[in-house]
Amino acid sequence: MAVLCTGSIAVDHIMVYQGRFKEVILPDKIHVLNVAFHVPEMRRSFGGCAANIAYGLRLLGDDPILLGTVGRDFGDYAAWLEECGIRRDWIVELSDEATAGCYITTDLDDNQITGFHPGAMDRAHEAPVSGVSSPIDVGIVSPNGKQAMVDHARALKQAGVPTVIDPGQGLPLFESDELLELLQGADTYIVNDYEWSLTADKTGLTPESILEHVETLVVTRGEQGSSLHTRDGQAKVPPVPAREVVDPTGCGDAYRAGYLHGRRRGLPIETCVRLGSLMGSYAVEKAGTQSLTFERAGFDERYESAFGEAP
Are strands 10-16 and 42-47 parallel, antiparallel or unpaired? Predict the structure, then answer.
């Protein structure tokens, strides 16, 4: 049994601006915005939400299933997935498209401005869940083409697979009724604090009322940890402080890998959130989205040091 990772598979172009956006973007001039950021270096790396999550799961010892669409330029990325031991049996290559590309600029306060070319991702509904022949323990619907997110959520829930809804950057694509359909019957809704505010604005839901639609709400809050809401109550889960903050890109995807690893094993929800928090901490200590590495024994020791018990 495995975790099904649906969502984007993309090539990231990551740039660091050696200043602060707030010093360049003037609030009273936002309506006539015209700025340029000098970025001395650019790093190209393999990414995309679904692929990043699958990478994190593989590090933790899982055998994830990666479902998505890519373009004619996928050769190098395919070789990398092979090297990492991530199955690509159900990745659909579209010869008339380019693989999705993400262009991320981060400032010294870890704020990010992102441009995204969807390419093949917009046709991700052409890689349906029904085409996956391997058994699935839990599935995640992460940022993807809108139709694919809708189709994948419906298919997973109809099949009785515990479904994690993670709209991320795709959240603005959905109207209130569409978002409520995504949520209805899901196992978990996981968002960061900004995405939760947007969800509340769109739907009028509160952390209490959303539990009429989903079993669990997880809101990540960066250095402030995570808020966990279930029908049994709520809890604040502290963060695991990073030993060094290098690059926040992909931190959320690593967090979701830790959370899904716990869900697949049937661990208590709070333990799943803690695993996510530790994975996120590892991610910010490395540049890039698929560059973190660790030995499992060291991961478990760090978890026990942070939370006072074994994972």
Answer: antiparallel
Q: Residue 223: its pLDDT value, please?
A: 86
- The residue segments making up the domain with residue 16 are 2-23+40-307
Domain count, the chain: 1
Helix then strand count (H, E) for the chain reads 8, 13
pLDDT in tens, 290-299: 988 999 999 9
Neighbour order of strands in the sheet with 188-192: 91-93, 65-70, 2-6, 136-141, 163-165, 188-192, 216-220, 226-230, 233-237
Is residue 283 assigned to a domain? yes
pTM for this entry: 0.90
Q: Are 152 and 186 in contact (CB under 8 A)?
A: no
Alpha-carbon distance of 132 to 113, in angstroms, equals: 35
- Looking up residue 55, the CATH number of its domain turns out to be 3.40.1190.20
Q: Reply yes or no on whether the pLDDT at 1 is more than 80.
A: no
Question: Is position 33 within any domain?
Answer: no
pLDDT in tens, 33-89: 888 899 998 888 899 999 999 999 999 999 999 999 999 999 999 999 999 999 999
Q: Active-site residues: which are they?
A: 253
The Cα–Cα gap between 78 and 74 comes to: 6
| Pair of tokens at residue 250 | 């992909």
